[in-house]
Design brief:
The chain is an alpha+beta fold. 31% of the residues lie in helices and 18% in strands. It is globular, with a radius of gyration of 25 Å.
Length: 163
């Protein structure tokens, strides 16, 4: 329906970008249940929805200290030499910590093809050489779930403490 005075359809507004003082003609939007029922699901943008990639994997464990432990679908075993001794390290889970500014700087300085591995190393607080070996043996689903944990930290982390 067009307004006879303004010549605009209901729900439209005009912004004059050619003038320094832009004039905005707002039209109040009033929604009714009948209006929302008339839309197909593809027409509705759910502003309350979260990206499924930002949700924690269902088997992730939230720890009291804010870290998240991700049990791995496939156990990873690597051999590490330290202090002249070779030992086997077994990873059945990875524990992710929130990233700091320093972490993001180090990640940004890494070569593009290494940034994911460096991100995991920094968040899991593992030596880069150890994470390189772990990464090579990680199941792809464990890598994807680790990425979801990192996305969760970035999109819906802890609230600022008031105490």
């Amino acid at each position: 329906m067009t307004n006879k005075t303004t010549g605009k359809a209901k729900g439209e507004f005009a912004i004059d970008l050619d003038e320094d003082d832009a004039v905005v003609d707002d039209t109040e939007v009033v929604e009714t249940d009948a209006q929302t029922e008339a839309f197909a699901d593809d027409d509705i943008v759910d502003e309350d929805a979260t990206d499924p990639l930002d949700k924690l994997p269902p088997h992730a464990i939230r720890n009291d200290d804010g870290t998240i432990t991700l049990p791995l679908y496939e156990t990873v075993r690597i051999k590490v030499r330290a202090s002249g001794k070779v030992r086997e390290k077994v990873y059945e889970s990875l524990t992710f910590h929130r990233l700091t500014g320093l972490d993001t700087r180090v990640i940004g300085e890494a070569p593009e093809n290494m940034q994911n591995i460096v991100t995991f190393a920094r968040s899991c607080r593992l030596n880069q050489a150890v994470m390189n070996a772990v990464w090579d043996k990680l199941d792809a689903s464990d890598i994807a779930n680790g990425g979801r944990v990192l996305n969760h930290f970035l999109s819906s982390g802890r609230k600022t403490r008031t105490s």
